[in-house]
Design a protein that fits this description.
two-stranded antiparallel ribbon; four-stranded antiparallel beta sheet; 7% strand
Protein backbone atom coordinates (compact mmCIF):
# COMPACT_ATOMS: atom_id res chain seq x y z
CA UNK A 1 0.00 0.00 0.00
CA UNK A 2 2.79 2.41 0.92
CA UNK A 3 4.42 1.90 -2.48
CA UNK A 4 1.13 2.57 -4.30
CA UNK A 5 0.61 5.79 -2.34
CA UNK A 6 4.13 6.95 -3.16
CA UNK A 7 3.54 6.22 -6.82
CA UNK A 8 0.24 8.17 -6.84
CA UNK A 9 1.84 11.11 -5.04
CA UNK A 10 4.75 11.16 -7.49
CA UNK A 11 2.36 11.00 -10.47
CA UNK A 12 0.22 13.79 -9.03
CA UNK A 13 3.25 15.98 -8.50
CA UNK A 14 4.30 15.43 -12.10
CA UNK A 15 0.81 16.43 -13.35
CA UNK A 16 0.81 19.44 -11.02
CA UNK A 17 4.20 20.53 -12.34
CA UNK A 18 2.96 20.26 -15.93
CA UNK A 19 -0.28 22.15 -15.24
CA UNK A 20 1.59 24.96 -13.48
CA UNK A 21 4.35 25.30 -16.04
CA UNK A 22 3.06 28.69 -17.24
CA UNK A 23 3.51 30.11 -13.75
CA UNK A 24 7.05 28.76 -13.49
CA UNK A 25 8.32 30.18 -16.78
CA UNK A 26 11.02 32.77 -16.23
CA UNK A 27 11.63 35.31 -18.97
CA UNK A 28 14.14 37.43 -17.07
CA UNK A 29 17.39 36.52 -18.80
CA UNK A 30 19.45 37.77 -15.86
CA UNK A 31 18.20 34.84 -13.79
CA UNK A 32 19.18 31.19 -14.13
CA UNK A 33 16.48 28.81 -15.37
CA UNK A 34 16.44 25.78 -17.60
CA UNK A 35 15.11 27.97 -20.39
CA UNK A 36 18.28 30.06 -20.54
CA UNK A 37 20.91 27.92 -18.79
CA UNK A 38 23.16 26.64 -20.16
CA UNK A 39 23.31 29.06 -23.07
CA UNK A 40 27.09 29.13 -23.61
CA UNK A 41 29.91 26.62 -23.74
CA UNK A 42 31.32 28.14 -20.58
CA UNK A 43 28.07 27.42 -18.76
CA UNK A 44 28.08 23.84 -20.05
CA UNK A 45 31.58 23.48 -18.68
CA UNK A 46 30.28 24.74 -15.32
CA UNK A 47 27.68 21.96 -15.41
CA UNK A 48 30.41 19.45 -16.19
CA UNK A 49 32.06 20.37 -12.89
CA UNK A 50 29.06 18.91 -11.05
CA UNK A 51 29.66 15.56 -12.75
CA UNK A 52 33.24 15.58 -11.52
CA UNK A 53 32.00 16.52 -8.07
CA UNK A 54 30.03 13.27 -7.95
CA UNK A 55 33.10 11.39 -6.78
CA UNK A 56 33.54 13.82 -3.87
CA UNK A 57 30.16 13.10 -2.28
CA UNK A 58 30.16 12.01 1.37
CA UNK A 59 29.10 8.47 0.53
CA UNK A 60 32.08 8.16 -1.82
CA UNK A 61 35.57 9.68 -1.68
CA UNK A 62 34.37 12.65 0.32
CA UNK A 63 34.11 10.53 3.47
CA UNK A 64 32.84 6.94 3.48
CA UNK A 65 34.07 4.99 0.44
CA UNK A 66 37.16 3.42 2.03
CA UNK A 67 36.70 3.65 5.77
CA UNK A 68 33.00 2.75 5.99
CA UNK A 69 32.79 0.68 2.83
CA UNK A 70 35.24 -1.14 0.65
CA UNK A 71 38.03 -1.40 3.27
CA UNK A 72 35.53 -3.28 5.45
CA UNK A 73 34.52 -5.76 2.78
CA UNK A 74 38.06 -6.63 1.67
CA UNK A 75 39.47 -6.68 5.25
CA UNK A 76 41.93 -3.87 4.66
CA UNK A 77 40.66 -2.40 7.90
CA UNK A 78 39.48 -3.29 11.33
CA UNK A 79 37.58 -0.91 13.60
CA UNK A 80 38.37 0.04 17.14
CA UNK A 81 34.71 -0.25 18.04
CA UNK A 82 31.59 -1.54 16.37
CA UNK A 83 29.00 0.71 17.94
CA UNK A 84 27.30 1.55 14.64
CA UNK A 85 26.59 -0.01 11.23
CA UNK A 86 30.27 -0.63 10.53
CA UNK A 87 30.07 -3.88 12.46
CA UNK A 88 27.72 -5.28 9.80
CA UNK A 89 30.13 -4.28 7.06
CA UNK A 90 33.07 -6.00 8.74
CA UNK A 91 31.07 -9.23 8.81
CA UNK A 92 29.92 -8.71 5.18
CA UNK A 93 26.34 -9.01 6.31
CA UNK A 94 24.87 -5.52 5.99
CA UNK A 95 21.17 -4.97 6.58
CA UNK A 96 19.04 -3.29 3.93
CA UNK A 97 18.84 -0.19 6.12
CA UNK A 98 22.59 0.06 6.79
CA UNK A 99 23.28 3.79 6.87
CA UNK A 100 26.62 3.59 5.04
CA UNK A 101 25.39 1.36 2.22
CA UNK A 102 22.34 3.59 1.88
CA UNK A 103 24.51 6.68 1.47
CA UNK A 104 26.87 4.97 -0.98
CA UNK A 105 24.04 3.76 -3.18
CA UNK A 106 22.39 7.18 -3.18
CA UNK A 107 25.58 9.06 -4.05
CA UNK A 108 26.49 6.65 -6.85
CA UNK A 109 23.11 7.21 -8.47
CA UNK A 110 23.42 10.98 -7.98
CA UNK A 111 26.78 10.82 -9.74
CA UNK A 112 25.06 9.06 -12.65
CA UNK A 113 22.32 11.71 -12.68
CA UNK A 114 24.76 14.64 -12.71
CA UNK A 115 26.68 13.06 -15.57
CA UNK A 116 23.49 12.52 -17.55
CA UNK A 117 22.40 16.12 -16.95
CA UNK A 118 25.54 17.27 -18.74
CA UNK A 119 25.06 14.81 -21.60
CA UNK A 120 21.44 15.90 -22.08
CA UNK A 121 22.39 19.59 -21.93
CA UNK A 122 25.08 19.12 -24.58
CA UNK A 123 22.64 17.30 -26.87
CA UNK A 124 20.03 20.05 -26.37
CA UNK A 125 22.60 22.76 -27.04
CA UNK A 126 23.60 21.16 -30.32
CA UNK A 127 19.96 20.98 -31.39
CA UNK A 128 19.18 24.60 -30.53
CA UNK A 129 22.38 26.33 -31.68
CA UNK A 130 24.22 26.73 -34.94
CA UNK A 131 27.41 25.07 -33.75
CA UNK A 132 30.71 25.69 -35.53
CA UNK A 133 33.20 22.91 -36.13
CA UNK A 134 35.44 24.32 -33.39
CA UNK A 135 32.61 24.50 -30.87
CA UNK A 136 31.42 21.05 -31.88
CA UNK A 137 34.85 19.64 -31.01
CA UNK A 138 34.68 21.36 -27.61
CA UNK A 139 31.21 19.96 -27.01
CA UNK A 140 32.38 16.47 -27.92
CA UNK A 141 35.27 16.82 -25.48
CA UNK A 142 32.84 17.78 -22.71
CA UNK A 143 30.50 14.94 -23.64
CA UNK A 144 33.41 12.47 -23.48
CA UNK A 145 34.20 13.63 -19.96
CA UNK A 146 30.59 13.31 -18.85
CA UNK A 147 30.37 9.80 -20.32
CA UNK A 148 33.57 8.86 -18.50
CA UNK A 149 32.08 10.08 -15.23
CA UNK A 150 28.88 8.12 -15.81
CA UNK A 151 30.87 4.97 -16.50
CA UNK A 152 33.06 5.58 -13.45
CA UNK A 153 29.95 6.00 -11.29
CA UNK A 154 28.50 2.73 -12.53
CA UNK A 155 31.90 1.08 -12.06
CA UNK A 156 31.67 1.98 -8.39
CA UNK A 157 28.10 0.68 -8.41
CA UNK A 158 29.41 -2.81 -9.05
CA UNK A 159 29.59 -3.33 -5.30
CA UNK A 160 25.81 -3.86 -5.45
CA UNK A 161 25.95 -6.47 -8.26
CA UNK A 162 25.53 -10.17 -7.85
CA UNK A 163 28.81 -11.99 -8.40
CA UNK A 164 29.60 -11.34 -12.04
CA UNK A 165 30.07 -14.87 -13.38
CA UNK A 166 26.76 -16.23 -12.12
CA UNK A 167 23.76 -16.52 -14.43
CA UNK A 168 20.89 -14.25 -13.48
CA UNK A 169 23.05 -11.73 -11.66
CA UNK A 170 21.61 -8.28 -11.25
CA UNK A 171 23.14 -4.85 -11.71
CA UNK A 172 21.77 -1.39 -11.02
CA UNK A 173 19.02 0.42 -12.92
CA UNK A 174 20.62 1.85 -16.06
CA UNK A 175 19.97 5.46 -17.04
CA UNK A 176 21.35 7.01 -20.24
CA UNK A 177 19.43 10.26 -19.76
CA UNK A 178 17.71 12.22 -17.00
CA UNK A 179 14.21 10.79 -16.42
CA UNK A 180 11.40 13.14 -17.43
CA UNK A 181 8.40 11.03 -16.37
CA UNK A 182 7.59 8.95 -13.32
CA UNK A 183 7.62 5.76 -15.40
CA UNK A 184 11.01 6.71 -16.75
CA UNK A 185 12.28 7.01 -13.18
CA UNK A 186 11.06 3.55 -12.17
CA UNK A 187 13.60 1.46 -14.05
CA UNK A 188 14.12 -2.10 -12.79
CA UNK A 189 17.53 -3.54 -12.12
CA UNK A 190 19.44 -4.63 -15.20
CA UNK A 191 21.01 -8.02 -15.64
CA UNK A 192 24.74 -8.27 -15.05
CA UNK A 193 25.33 -8.76 -18.78
CA UNK A 194 23.29 -5.65 -19.59
CA UNK A 195 25.22 -3.67 -17.00
CA UNK A 196 28.60 -4.59 -18.44
CA UNK A 197 27.44 -3.88 -21.99
CA UNK A 198 26.13 -0.46 -20.94
CA UNK A 199 29.34 0.54 -19.13
CA UNK A 200 31.53 -0.79 -21.95
CA UNK A 201 29.56 1.06 -24.64
CA UNK A 202 29.63 4.25 -22.57
CA UNK A 203 33.42 4.01 -22.26
CA UNK A 204 33.90 3.16 -25.93
CA UNK A 205 32.11 6.37 -26.85
CA UNK A 206 34.12 8.28 -24.24
CA UNK A 207 37.38 6.89 -25.68
CA UNK A 208 36.38 8.05 -29.16
CA UNK A 209 35.42 11.55 -28.01
CA UNK A 210 38.50 11.95 -25.78
CA UNK A 211 40.91 10.82 -28.48
CA UNK A 212 43.96 13.09 -28.39
CA UNK A 213 42.89 14.91 -25.22
CA UNK A 214 45.67 14.17 -22.73
CA UNK A 215 47.06 17.51 -21.60
CA UNK A 216 44.70 18.36 -18.72
CA UNK A 217 45.27 15.65 -16.14
CA UNK A 218 42.63 17.05 -13.78
CA UNK A 219 40.05 15.94 -16.34
CA UNK A 220 39.28 12.63 -17.98
CA UNK A 221 41.76 11.88 -20.78
CA UNK A 222 41.95 9.38 -23.60
CA UNK A 223 44.23 7.15 -21.53
CA UNK A 224 42.05 7.44 -18.44
CA UNK A 225 39.06 6.19 -20.44
CA UNK A 226 41.10 3.38 -21.99
CA UNK A 227 42.49 2.37 -18.60
CA UNK A 228 39.03 2.19 -17.07
CA UNK A 229 37.71 0.32 -20.10
CA UNK A 230 40.45 -2.29 -19.74
CA UNK A 231 39.57 -2.74 -16.07
CA UNK A 232 35.88 -3.10 -16.94
CA UNK A 233 36.62 -5.73 -19.59
CA UNK A 234 38.63 -7.70 -17.04
CA UNK A 235 35.88 -7.46 -14.42
CA UNK A 236 33.33 -8.53 -17.04
CA UNK A 237 35.49 -11.59 -17.70
CA UNK A 238 36.38 -10.51 -21.22
CA UNK A 239 40.20 -10.61 -21.05
CA UNK A 240 40.43 -11.09 -24.81
CA UNK A 241 38.90 -7.62 -25.24
CA UNK A 242 41.05 -6.10 -22.52
CA UNK A 243 44.31 -7.37 -24.03
CA UNK A 244 44.66 -4.96 -27.02
CA UNK A 245 43.72 -1.99 -24.83
CA UNK A 246 46.26 -2.96 -22.18
CA UNK A 247 48.92 -3.29 -24.90
CA UNK A 248 47.94 0.08 -26.36
CA UNK A 249 48.39 1.73 -22.95
CA UNK A 250 51.70 0.00 -22.30
CA UNK A 251 53.15 0.77 -25.74
CA UNK A 252 51.64 4.12 -26.69
CA UNK A 253 50.50 6.11 -23.65
CA UNK A 254 53.97 7.30 -22.67
CA UNK A 255 53.25 6.15 -19.11
CA UNK A 256 55.97 4.44 -17.11
CA UNK A 257 56.54 3.17 -13.61
CA UNK A 258 58.01 6.01 -11.58
CA UNK A 259 61.23 5.34 -9.69
CA UNK A 260 61.17 4.36 -6.03
CA UNK A 261 61.87 7.88 -4.80
CA UNK A 262 58.74 9.23 -6.48
CA UNK A 263 56.81 6.08 -5.58
CA UNK A 264 57.64 6.55 -1.91
CA UNK A 265 56.08 10.04 -1.92
CA UNK A 266 53.25 9.96 -4.42
CA UNK A 267 50.51 8.84 -2.02
CA UNK A 268 50.97 11.42 0.71
CA UNK A 269 50.22 15.00 1.64
CA UNK A 270 53.30 16.97 2.62
CA UNK A 271 54.37 20.61 2.51
CA UNK A 272 57.90 19.41 1.70
CA UNK A 273 56.99 18.35 -1.83
CA UNK A 274 53.57 19.96 -2.25
CA UNK A 275 51.85 18.73 -5.41
CA UNK A 276 55.06 17.69 -7.20
CA UNK A 277 54.04 14.02 -7.36
CA UNK A 278 50.42 14.43 -8.36
CA UNK A 279 49.54 13.39 -11.93
CA UNK A 280 52.90 11.69 -12.29
CA UNK A 281 54.14 9.54 -15.18
CA UNK A 282 52.48 6.43 -13.74
CA UNK A 283 49.02 7.90 -13.25
CA UNK A 284 46.29 7.36 -15.85
CA UNK A 285 43.54 8.86 -13.74
CA UNK A 286 43.30 10.20 -10.22
CA UNK A 287 40.63 12.10 -8.34
CA UNK A 288 41.82 15.66 -7.79
CA UNK A 289 41.46 16.79 -4.17
CA UNK A 290 42.16 20.17 -2.56
CA UNK A 291 41.70 21.30 1.03
CA UNK A 292 38.75 23.55 1.70
CA UNK A 293 38.98 25.63 4.84
CA UNK A 294 35.56 27.16 5.21
CA UNK A 295 33.40 24.21 6.24
CA UNK A 296 33.38 21.08 8.34
CA UNK A 297 34.13 17.47 7.43
CA UNK A 298 30.54 16.55 6.54
CA UNK A 299 29.82 19.51 4.31
CA UNK A 300 30.30 19.74 0.57
CA UNK A 301 34.00 19.66 0.01
CA UNK A 302 36.83 19.75 -2.50
CA UNK A 303 39.01 17.50 -0.34
CA UNK A 304 38.33 14.24 1.48
CA UNK A 305 37.50 13.61 5.12
CA UNK A 306 38.01 9.85 4.90
CA UNK A 307 41.34 10.57 6.57
CA UNK A 308 39.46 11.88 9.59
CA UNK A 309 38.11 8.38 10.24
CA UNK A 310 41.37 6.65 9.27
CA UNK A 311 43.47 9.13 11.24
CA UNK A 312 46.41 7.81 13.31
CA UNK A 313 46.62 7.92 17.05
CA UNK A 314 49.68 9.70 18.40
CA UNK A 315 51.42 9.95 21.71
CA UNK A 316 50.13 12.77 23.88
CA UNK A 317 53.35 14.32 25.07
CA UNK A 318 51.60 16.58 27.55
CA UNK A 319 49.82 13.93 29.59
CA UNK A 320 51.13 13.64 33.13
CA UNK A 321 51.98 10.01 33.85
CA UNK A 322 54.44 8.48 36.26
CA UNK A 323 57.47 6.54 35.02
CA UNK A 324 55.97 3.36 36.51
CA UNK A 325 52.69 3.39 34.57
CA UNK A 326 50.12 3.31 33.12
CA UNK A 327 50.01 0.18 31.01
CA UNK A 328 49.35 -0.11 27.27
CA UNK A 329 45.59 -0.09 27.56
CA UNK A 330 45.38 3.32 29.21
CA UNK A 331 43.93 5.68 26.56
CA UNK A 332 45.21 8.77 28.37
CA UNK A 333 48.60 8.54 26.70
CA UNK A 334 47.10 8.70 23.21
CA UNK A 335 45.31 11.34 21.22
CA UNK A 336 43.59 10.89 17.89
CA UNK A 337 44.55 12.80 14.78
CA UNK A 338 40.83 12.71 13.97
CA UNK A 339 38.24 10.14 14.93
CA UNK A 340 40.83 7.40 14.57
CA UNK A 341 38.19 4.65 14.38
CA UNK A 342 39.95 2.45 11.82
CA UNK A 343 43.31 0.73 11.74
CA UNK A 344 45.04 -1.74 9.45
CA UNK A 345 43.68 -5.24 10.13
CA UNK A 346 46.39 -7.33 11.79
CA UNK A 347 46.17 -10.08 9.17
CA UNK A 348 47.57 -7.67 6.59
CA UNK A 349 50.80 -7.27 8.57
CA UNK A 350 51.30 -11.04 8.43
CA UNK A 351 50.54 -11.08 4.72
CA UNK A 352 53.22 -8.45 4.13
CA UNK A 353 55.70 -10.64 6.03
CA UNK A 354 55.78 -8.79 9.36
CA UNK A 355 55.63 -11.50 12.04
CA UNK A 356 56.89 -9.74 15.18
CA UNK A 357 53.42 -8.96 16.49
CA UNK A 358 52.85 -6.03 18.83
CA UNK A 359 55.41 -4.29 21.04
CA UNK A 360 53.92 -5.44 24.35
CA UNK A 361 53.58 -3.32 27.44
CA UNK A 362 55.59 -0.16 27.66
CA UNK A 363 58.34 0.11 30.21
CA UNK A 364 59.49 2.87 32.49
CA UNK A 365 62.03 5.01 30.65
CA UNK A 366 65.22 5.17 32.77
CA UNK A 367 66.46 8.17 30.74
CA UNK A 368 63.38 10.30 31.34
CA UNK A 369 64.23 13.76 32.71
CA UNK A 370 61.15 15.61 33.98
CA UNK A 371 63.07 18.88 33.94
CA UNK A 372 63.49 18.78 30.16
CA UNK A 373 60.91 19.27 27.42
CA UNK A 374 59.19 16.06 26.51
CA UNK A 375 59.81 14.29 23.24
CA UNK A 376 59.56 10.73 21.96
CA UNK A 377 62.92 10.09 23.58
CA UNK A 378 62.20 12.00 26.77
CA UNK A 379 58.89 10.51 27.92
CA UNK A 380 58.09 8.59 31.15
CA UNK A 381 57.34 5.42 29.17
CA UNK A 382 59.29 3.63 26.47
CA UNK A 383 58.89 0.66 24.16
CA UNK A 384 60.99 -2.43 24.78
CA UNK A 385 64.33 -1.62 23.08
CA UNK A 386 64.72 -5.22 21.88
CA UNK A 387 61.41 -4.97 20.01
CA UNK A 388 62.43 -1.69 18.42
CA UNK A 389 65.76 -3.16 17.30
CA UNK A 390 64.10 -6.21 15.76
CA UNK A 391 61.49 -4.04 14.04
CA UNK A 392 64.17 -1.87 12.47
CA UNK A 393 66.05 -4.96 11.31
CA UNK A 394 62.92 -6.38 9.64
CA UNK A 395 62.35 -3.07 7.92
CA UNK A 396 65.86 -2.21 6.79
CA UNK A 397 66.64 -5.74 5.57
CA UNK A 398 63.33 -5.94 3.69
CA UNK A 399 62.34 -9.07 5.56
CA UNK A 400 58.83 -7.66 5.32
CA UNK A 401 57.60 -6.30 2.00
CA UNK A 402 58.66 -2.62 1.74
CA UNK A 403 55.16 -1.72 0.58
CA UNK A 404 53.94 -2.34 4.11
CA UNK A 405 55.76 0.80 5.22
CA UNK A 406 54.38 2.82 2.29
CA UNK A 407 50.86 1.79 3.21
CA UNK A 408 50.90 1.78 7.01
CA UNK A 409 52.59 3.57 9.89
CA UNK A 410 54.27 1.23 12.37
CA UNK A 411 53.23 1.55 15.97
CA UNK A 412 55.91 3.36 18.04
CA UNK A 413 58.41 3.37 15.16
CA UNK A 414 57.00 5.79 12.59
CA UNK A 415 56.39 9.42 13.38
CA UNK A 416 55.21 12.72 12.04
CA UNK A 417 54.68 16.22 13.45
CA UNK A 418 51.98 17.28 15.86
CA UNK A 419 50.34 20.68 15.97
CA UNK A 420 53.19 22.02 18.12
CA UNK A 421 55.84 20.99 15.65
CA UNK A 422 57.20 18.20 17.84
CA UNK A 423 57.89 14.66 16.67
CA UNK A 424 55.38 12.17 18.06
CA UNK A 425 55.03 8.42 18.05
CA UNK A 426 52.29 6.74 16.13
CA UNK A 427 50.46 5.13 19.02
CA UNK A 428 47.89 2.41 18.82
CA UNK A 429 44.18 3.13 19.15
CA UNK A 430 42.43 2.29 22.37
CA UNK A 431 38.96 0.86 22.71
CA UNK A 432 36.69 3.27 24.51
CA UNK A 433 33.49 1.35 23.92
CA UNK A 434 34.30 -2.26 24.79
CA UNK A 435 36.72 -4.07 27.03
CA UNK A 436 38.52 -6.15 24.46
CA UNK A 437 42.20 -7.08 24.16
CA UNK A 438 44.04 -4.53 22.09
CA UNK A 439 45.67 -5.49 18.82
CA UNK A 440 48.81 -4.52 16.90
CA UNK A 441 46.80 -1.78 15.20
CA UNK A 442 49.08 0.01 12.76
CA UNK A 443 47.72 3.27 11.39
CA UNK A 444 47.16 4.16 7.75
CA UNK A 445 49.78 6.00 5.77
CA UNK A 446 48.59 6.15 2.16
CA UNK A 447 46.69 9.36 1.47
CA UNK A 448 47.42 10.73 4.96
CA UNK A 449 48.85 14.07 6.06
CA UNK A 450 52.54 13.48 6.83
CA UNK A 451 53.04 16.98 8.27
CA UNK A 452 50.65 16.67 11.17
CA UNK A 453 47.18 15.80 12.31
CA UNK A 454 44.21 15.69 9.96
CA UNK A 455 42.56 18.48 11.94
CA UNK A 456 45.35 20.78 10.76
CA UNK A 457 43.99 20.56 7.22
CA UNK A 458 40.37 20.91 8.33
CA UNK A 459 39.69 17.19 7.87
CA UNK A 460 39.72 17.98 4.16
CA UNK A 461 42.71 16.17 2.73
CA UNK A 462 44.21 17.30 -0.59
CA UNK A 463 45.73 13.87 -1.28
CA UNK A 464 44.60 12.64 -4.71
CA UNK A 465 43.13 9.15 -5.03
CA UNK A 466 44.47 6.90 -7.81
CA UNK A 467 41.76 5.25 -9.88
CA UNK A 468 44.01 3.77 -12.60
CA UNK A 469 47.81 3.69 -12.60
CA UNK A 470 50.31 1.82 -14.71
CA UNK A 471 51.26 -0.76 -12.07
CA UNK A 472 47.62 -1.82 -12.07
CA UNK A 473 47.69 -2.07 -15.88
CA UNK A 474 50.91 -4.15 -15.83
CA UNK A 475 49.42 -6.63 -13.39
CA UNK A 476 46.17 -6.91 -15.35
CA UNK A 477 48.23 -7.58 -18.48
CA UNK A 478 50.08 -10.32 -16.62
CA UNK A 479 46.72 -11.80 -15.65
CA UNK A 480 45.68 -11.90 -19.31
CA UNK A 481 48.95 -13.63 -20.31
CA UNK A 482 49.50 -16.00 -17.36
CA UNK A 483 48.21 -19.08 -19.22
CA UNK A 484 49.18 -18.28 -22.81
CA UNK A 485 52.55 -16.57 -22.20
CA UNK A 486 53.66 -17.14 -18.58
CA UNK A 487 57.20 -15.83 -19.24
CA UNK A 488 55.97 -12.40 -20.32
CA UNK A 489 53.37 -12.40 -17.56
CA UNK A 490 56.08 -13.05 -14.97
CA UNK A 491 58.23 -10.23 -16.37
CA UNK A 492 55.42 -7.68 -15.95
CA UNK A 493 54.85 -8.89 -12.40
CA UNK A 494 58.56 -8.58 -11.69
CA UNK A 495 58.64 -5.03 -13.06
CA UNK A 496 56.21 -3.99 -10.33
CA UNK A 497 57.96 -6.15 -7.72
CA UNK A 498 61.44 -4.77 -8.48
CA UNK A 499 60.33 -1.17 -8.17
CA UNK A 500 58.80 -1.89 -4.76
CA UNK A 501 62.23 -3.05 -3.54
CA UNK A 502 64.05 -0.06 -4.97
CA UNK A 503 65.44 -1.71 -8.12
CA UNK A 504 65.02 -0.47 -11.72
CA UNK A 505 61.78 -1.89 -13.08
CA UNK A 506 63.11 -3.08 -16.43
CA UNK A 507 66.27 -4.96 -15.38
CA UNK A 508 66.63 -8.32 -13.64
CA UNK A 509 67.14 -8.03 -9.88
CA UNK A 510 67.98 -10.22 -6.87
CA UNK A 511 64.35 -10.12 -5.73
CA UNK A 512 62.82 -11.42 -8.97
CA UNK A 513 60.24 -14.16 -8.74
CA UNK A 514 61.36 -17.29 -10.55
CA UNK A 515 57.89 -18.52 -11.47
CA UNK A 516 54.23 -17.63 -11.15
CA UNK A 517 54.01 -20.07 -8.23
CA UNK A 518 57.08 -18.79 -6.39
CA UNK A 519 56.86 -18.06 -2.68
CA UNK A 520 55.63 -14.65 -1.61
CA UNK A 521 55.75 -12.87 1.75
CA UNK A 522 52.30 -14.21 2.61
CA UNK A 523 52.23 -16.95 5.31
CA UNK A 524 52.27 -20.61 4.34
CA UNK A 525 48.60 -21.06 5.26
CA UNK A 526 47.53 -18.15 3.04
CA UNK A 527 46.21 -18.87 -0.46
CA UNK A 528 48.46 -16.05 -1.75
CA UNK A 529 51.64 -17.80 -0.52
CA UNK A 530 52.40 -19.40 -3.90
CA UNK A 531 50.48 -17.11 -6.23
CA UNK A 532 52.68 -14.17 -7.18
CA UNK A 533 50.06 -12.50 -9.41
CA UNK A 534 47.42 -12.35 -6.71
CA UNK A 535 49.93 -11.39 -4.03
CA UNK A 536 51.41 -8.57 -6.13
CA UNK A 537 48.00 -7.11 -6.92
CA UNK A 538 47.15 -7.23 -3.22
CA UNK A 539 50.49 -5.77 -2.02
CA UNK A 540 50.98 -3.17 -4.74
CA UNK A 541 47.46 -1.76 -4.57
CA UNK A 542 46.94 -2.22 -0.84
CA UNK A 543 44.76 0.50 0.75
CA UNK A 544 43.85 1.94 -2.67
CA UNK A 545 40.38 0.41 -2.81
CA UNK A 546 41.19 -2.05 -5.61
CA UNK A 547 41.41 -5.45 -3.90
CA UNK A 548 37.68 -6.00 -3.55
CA UNK A 549 37.24 -6.03 -7.32
CA UNK A 550 39.94 -8.73 -7.56
CA UNK A 551 38.34 -10.80 -4.80
CA UNK A 552 35.04 -10.70 -6.69
CA UNK A 553 36.58 -11.36 -10.11
CA UNK A 554 38.52 -14.39 -8.90
CA UNK A 555 35.74 -15.47 -6.51
CA UNK A 556 38.16 -15.97 -3.62
CA UNK A 557 35.97 -14.52 -0.90
CA UNK A 558 35.80 -17.76 1.06
CA UNK A 559 39.60 -18.18 1.04
CA UNK A 560 39.97 -14.57 2.20
CA UNK A 561 37.64 -15.17 5.13
CA UNK A 562 39.58 -18.29 6.11
CA UNK A 563 42.77 -16.23 6.16
CA UNK A 564 41.47 -13.25 8.13
CA UNK A 565 39.26 -15.42 10.38
CA UNK A 566 37.84 -12.62 12.53
CA UNK A 567 37.38 -8.91 13.08
CA UNK A 568 36.50 -6.76 16.05
CA UNK A 569 32.85 -7.38 15.13
CA UNK A 570 33.24 -11.15 15.50
CA UNK A 571 34.07 -14.29 13.56
CA UNK A 572 33.94 -14.11 9.77
CA UNK A 573 31.41 -16.57 8.37
CA UNK A 574 31.17 -17.44 4.70
CA UNK A 575 27.54 -17.17 3.54
CA UNK A 576 28.11 -17.87 -0.13
CA UNK A 577 27.28 -15.42 -2.86
CA UNK A 578 25.68 -12.91 -0.49
CA UNK A 579 29.12 -12.06 0.87
CA UNK A 580 30.04 -10.59 -2.50
CA UNK A 581 27.13 -8.18 -2.79
CA UNK A 582 25.58 -5.43 -0.74
CA UNK A 583 21.81 -5.07 -0.31
CA UNK A 584 19.82 -2.49 -2.20
CA UNK A 585 18.69 -0.02 0.50
CA UNK A 586 15.13 -0.76 1.54
CA UNK A 587 14.12 2.88 1.24
CA UNK A 588 15.05 2.73 -2.47
CA UNK A 589 12.94 -0.38 -2.98
CA UNK A 590 10.01 1.28 -1.18
CA UNK A 591 10.10 4.21 -3.60
CA UNK A 592 9.25 1.90 -6.49
CA UNK A 593 5.99 0.12 -7.31
CA UNK A 594 5.84 -3.40 -5.91
CA UNK A 595 8.24 -5.84 -7.56
CA UNK A 596 10.14 -3.36 -9.75
CA UNK A 597 13.37 -2.82 -7.81
CA UNK A 598 14.21 -6.27 -6.42
CA UNK A 599 16.62 -7.09 -3.62
CA UNK A 600 20.05 -8.70 -4.00
CA UNK A 601 20.61 -12.35 -3.16
CA UNK A 602 19.00 -13.53 0.07
CA UNK A 603 18.94 -10.15 1.81
Amino acid sequence: MKKKILYIIASSLMLFANSCSDYLDIDDKTTISDSVFPSTLEQLDMMLTTAYYGSHANGLYGQYWFDCGIFMWDHTTDVDNTYDDRGQLLLENASSDNSYVRRQYSDIMKWVEKSNEVIDAIDAYKESHDVSATDNAKLDYMRGQALFNRALAYWHGQIFFEIESKQGGLGLPLYDHVPVTVDDMMKPRSTTAESWEFIINTLKEAVSLLNGYNSDHTRATEWAAKGLLAKVFMQARQPQNAKPILEDIINNSGKKLVNFDVYSKMFYVSEEWGTDYEFNDESLYELDMTTNWGSGPRSRKTGSSMQMILAPWVLNLDIQVSPAGPNDLDPRTSTAGGWGNNYVADGNLLRFGFTLGGPGKRLANPSYDPNKERSIDNFPLMVNPDYVAKSIEVRENKIADPRLYLSAAQTYIDYHLDDKGRITWVDKPQSMYAEVPDKIAWSYKKYMNMDGLESQINFSSPANFYIVRLADIYLLYAEVLKDSDPTTALEYINKVHRRAYGYPADSPSPVDYKSLSDETKAPADDHLHNDVLKYERWAELFAEGQWWWDVRRWEIGEQEMKFYKESRAGQLTWRGIDCYVQPIPQREIDRYPEGILVQSGNY
